Amino acid sequence: MSILSDRDIIRELGRGIFFHPLKPGSIKACDLCLTASEYAYAIGLKQRLPVDTEQKQDNPNEEQKFFYIPPKDTALVWTDESVWLSNQFRGPLYSVVDRVSNGLGHLGTRVNPNWSGVLCIAIHNFSEEAVRINVRDVQNPIAYLAIEKLSSKTLTKPKSDNPARLDVLRGQRNRNEIDDYFNHRENSWMRDNTGLLKKLMLDSEEYKKLNVGIQDTLFGLLGSDEQVRWTALSAIAALLAVIISAIALFKPSSSSTSSSNMLLIQLKTLLNPIVNLTSNK
Q1: 125-148 pLDDT tens trace
Q2: In the prediction, which pLDDT does 224 show?
Q3: What's the pTM value of the predicted model, to 2 decimals?
């Protein structure tokens, strides 16, 4: 098992990971920031927590929404972001130090392989005072989501978990507003509509910026002339294709088969983005 870095996460977006909405700063060195949505339910009060609004101090033209977790109460907070992980990944959640320092409890849960939808995170306020939670504030997330690659694919089937974990509200009063929001047809990507979740992520401006950043890095290594770039990419793709074909044709016998297969996999991994770039020209 290995933990994905920020570069690994970016490479997997659209393949083994969907994450929407991406925000500037969502991707950290080795995890993803999870922010609060406007939907949170206090177990003690038995109601949805009210959301207030104020002007941002650093930008008076923008508003910041927020709510308070009452003292000595537990809030079920649904994330603003929806996540899908393939059967090769799992996602442990980690606490934010500032939050814990203010009296909130540590987190100890994870996102299962094949999960799709928003997350419901139970946050305990052990302090004597209400603790403020900002909505959609990537600078003040409620948790960090790390991505771990499994040593082998899981046998767990898709949709094995309750989408959006609305089941945790079973038997609770004053839950209709939360149920109606997440069950609305337009919000199906927040539950288990993986296809719509993928489309929304791929069409988002923040995802496109990430892709442009990767391509610009590669193009920078190939010079400034566009024709020279594409000629170089085509030549590299052709050369790597010949090398891969040669390895597959003249594969060594038993003693070195393992290392040969590893080289073949690495070359294919290197070739894929180059082929995609040239084919999308």
Answers
A1: 999 999 999 999 999 999 999 999
A2: 46
A3: 0.77
Give the single-character DSSP code of 162.
P
**30 DSSP assignment:** S
Q: What is the DSSP letter of 136?
A: S
What b/e readout covers 248-266, taking b as 16+ CB neighbours within 10 angstroms? eeeeeeeeeeeebeeeeee
Closest CA to 19 of 215, 189, 143, 186: 189
What contacts 153, CB < 8 A, 6 or more positions away?
Answer: 87, 88
The first and second tokens of residue 35, run together, are: 């922010």
Q: At what angle do helices 205-220 and 194-203 cross, to 10 degrees?
A: 60
Residues whose CB falls within 8 Å of the CB of residue 220, separated by 6 or more in sequence, listed in order: none
Alpha helices in the chain (DSSP H): 6-12, 97-101, 176-183, 194-203, 205-220, 226-249, 257-279
- Helix boundaries (H) for 112-225: 176-183, 194-203, 205-220
Kindly list the distances between the CA atom of residue 62 and the CA atoms of 21, 54, 57, 59, 134, in Å, as whole numbers in the listed order: 19, 9, 9, 6, 14
- Torsion sign over Cα 228, 234, 235, 237: positive
Q: Count the neighbouring beta carbons within 10 Å of the beta carbon of residue 130.
A: 15
Residue 210, phi then psi, degrees to nearest 5: -65, -45
